[in-house]
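Supplementary Methods S3. Input chains for the assembly prediction are listed below.
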Amino acid sequence: MKPGSTLAACTALVRRDLTLVWRRRGDAANPILFALIVVALFPLALGPEPEQLRRISIGVVFVAVLLAGLLALDSLFRADWEDGSLEQLVLSPHPLSLLLACKIGVHWATTALPLILVSPLLGELLHLDPALRWLLPSALLLATPLLSLLGAVCVALTVGMRRAGMLLALLVLPLYVPVLIFGAGACDAAQAGLPFLAPLLWLGAALALALVLAPLACAAALRISLS
Amino acid sequence: MPPAPRQPEDHRDRPALLEARGLALSRNDEPIFGPLDFALHPGEVVLVEGDNGAGKTTLLRVLSGLLAPTSGEIRLAGEPLTLARLSPQVALLSHANGLKPELTAIENLRFAAGLLGTRPGLSPTSALAAVGLAGYDDVPTRQLSAGQKKRVALARVLAAPVGLWLLDEPYANLDRAGIELVNRLLENHASRGGAALITSHGAYAYTSGTPRRIRLRGDADAGAGETRAAARASTVTESRA
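Predicted structure tokens for the full assembly:
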């Protein structure tokens, strides 16, 4: 009687979560549609002058991606909590933080990665400076995993509550502020012709830190929520 | 039909799989259960009985390590159980089955096998057949009845390579054949040297041949929080099947 390997457990978890996303693939498009609509609202509200839209484009795309990610965040543990499989995950003999890191990774790959892929289109809708065509997705590539990791800790804390939506937003959004400042700041600096590498490196450093610490915090928060 | 009861002394000399000493839990100063002292040796099946709200489910959550007790200690195979270090020796069947409705029965079991490992010689398919669901491999769990879902969850417990089963209301939603199935699974598990703690509020029949050896009076707080003395009255009474 020996438990399976941790690698097998992680593989099984990733495969299961990917299968679940595939079975509910209709839902997977929701964050993209949401971000598209939010971005499309700005020309409607502010008027179609390209100069004005170009000025706000970076910030709007960042905020739209961030809000879409926030809406998708609730689904990270919700279903697992309701059907009791979260309990089984906690009771498994493998390190919970590692399993959660896998879950967060799958969640990021299925909610945030599609948003990054459509971010050039979002930029195009707002006449984004063509020089930023590659920088914006790159900044998002560094920023969104950080958002997912920070968000996961807050979701883990609120998963036991019945109506956690607003509370989750209030917990998460302040944590997102630095990410937004560095991410959008890098793009703004590039648009102004200034050096933009430093804010991106800051994002990378924060991501490296969060990759190690957030799953541990997430595991501790989930144990509290489950008891 | 009921198999002959084995001698409980068989495994007595082996260390207890689960041991609780002075185990008690209270919430907001209201005692939920305990203090309880009992041990679960290999080959034993213990039934926790109690009315609704008596704290049976809570006791199982404490024993599985999901919930920290207010006082007392739990030892799993001699090692103290702490929240941070959950033992790979326990399988829990709780009210929420832990099954994904979107996945088929076999996909759910394959995931559990990956997560927990498998008992030697028991594949997900054979575990499903062992709970009487042969041929249901590719049916989405969503389409199964409550009783069939329970059987899939039992198959998961059966396939887990663990010695200790903590089953919360394993008889709920099951038909007569299902109840006999649970009894048979418990019987086999005990004869393998495993142990199980099961809860029931008593509405389901433990028909003759139920393989329990110890009856744990879990109705500690028939009026939860009335008096500490009432809670203390909970004792482990032994009864030979």
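The longest strand of chain B covers residues 30-40. DSSP finds six helices and ten strands in chain B.
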